[in-house]
Amino acid sequence: MWGSWWLDLLLGLAAGLLLAWAALVVALIIARPRGGLLREALRLLPDLLRLLPRLAGDRSLPRGARIAVALLLAYLASPVDLVPDFIPVLGYADDAIITAAVLRWVVHRAGLPAVRRQWPGTEAGFAALCRLAGLAPPSPADPRRRPPPPGE
Asked: Is residue 65 included in any domain, yes or no?
């Protein structure tokens, strides 16, 4: 009697975990950047890796946004991936997709100027980040826009 109960429990837990994993994979597919944005996200990786710790430490951002960025950093540092790397396309793209989704949420929560203050890259890179976040980049006449560094 006990053996059957434990077996049912283990099978139920395994089925639940499999269903949750499948739901997360579907969510990744739905949230993935469209068109060439995934390639842009991969090209922006060095700037994104400098941006994320800056955002996590920016006390002017809402606490929830900083926590989301810190959790994203922990996920990116973890050797465990949501989608294993041997799965074509999504295996290598899951980090970029999750990063894009978290950045969208952070930009919508904290505002574009807050993220712009911490952006370490070029104006073209920031425009790509805005496209990735689903927002229009600030116009050149926007007074909150940081002037480009000399020689750029």
From this structure: yes
pLDDT in tens, 87-140: 766 666 677 777 778 888 888 888 888 888 999 988 888 888 887 777 666 665
What is the phi/psi pair of residue 134, to 5°? 75, 25
**Whole-number Å distance between alpha carbons of 18 and 35:** 29
What DSSP string runs through 14-68? Answer: HHHHHHHHHHHHHHHHHHSPPTTHHHHHHHTHHHHHHHHHHHHH-TTS-HHHHHH
Q: How many domains does the chain have?
A: 1
The answer to whether residue 26 is domain-embedded is no
Residue 71 domain-assigned (yes or no)? yes
Q: Which of 24, 75, 85, 82 is nearest to 52 (CA)?
A: 75
Residue 10 lies in a domain: no
The residue count for the chain: 152
Provide the residue range defining the domain that includes 89: 32-133
Residue 16 has pLDDT above 70, yes or no: yes
Whether residue 152 is predicted with pLDDT greater than 60 in this model: the reply is: no
Asked if pLDDT for residue 3 goes beyond 70, the answer is: no
